[in-house]
Design brief:
This protein is mostly helical. It has five helices and no strands. It has a domain of 106 residues. Helix 3 crosses helix 5.
């Protein structure tokens, strides 16, 4: 039973890693996403130049890096901590290290996909997002431990 509990804590991170891997294939390359995003952006901003549409597409794609590795880092921390609760710096460092390593492997994988380009800058964006997730989770845990958001009776306002 203990093995199943341990596996359950890692399942979201493993599933998210698979999703990241699929996102780094040809299917979600800039060539393919532009077929959907360009017309949508043109519809939303009909008087915008093609150059600005390309720039928006670039930032949308980079925000994908931010969001996917932010969530991945959170899932990794849950896997690292196992059945324990709270937040510890050691867990956060492990989550960041795993996310950074996976990001580097992801960029290496993209170097073999003809329609993708591997970039150390993307890996830096990914790792920075993983760090940001751990900072936010750490702050949330600290505030929660301090009892912030609770009324004097010990209940949160929503209770």
């Amino acid at each position: 039973m203990r093995r199943w509990t341990r596996l359950k804590t890692w399942l979201p991170a493993v599933a998210w890693a698979a999703l990241i891997f699929l996102a780094s294939t040809d299917t979600l390359s800039a060539n393919h996403t532009s077929r959907i995003i360009f017309p949508l952006l043109h519809f939303l901003f009909p008087h915008t130049s093609l150059e600005n549409i390309k720039r928006m597409h670039f930032f949308i794609r980079k925000s994908g890096h931010v969001s996917e590795y932010f969530v991945f880092s959170y899932f990794l921390m849950r896997g690292v901590r196992g059945k324990d609760r709270g937040w510890h710096l050691r867990w956060a460092i492990w989550a960041i290290a795993i996310a950074a390593g996976y990001s580097a492997l992801d960029e290496f994988h993209q170097s073999f996909v003809p329609t993708r380009t591997a970039s150390p800058w993307d890996s830096l964006i990914d790792t920075t997002s993983a760090v940001a997730a751990q900072v936010i989770v750490g702050l949330w845990a600290w505030f929660h431990a301090q009892g912030w958001g609770k009324s004097p009776g010990g209940k949160t306002p929503a209770q």
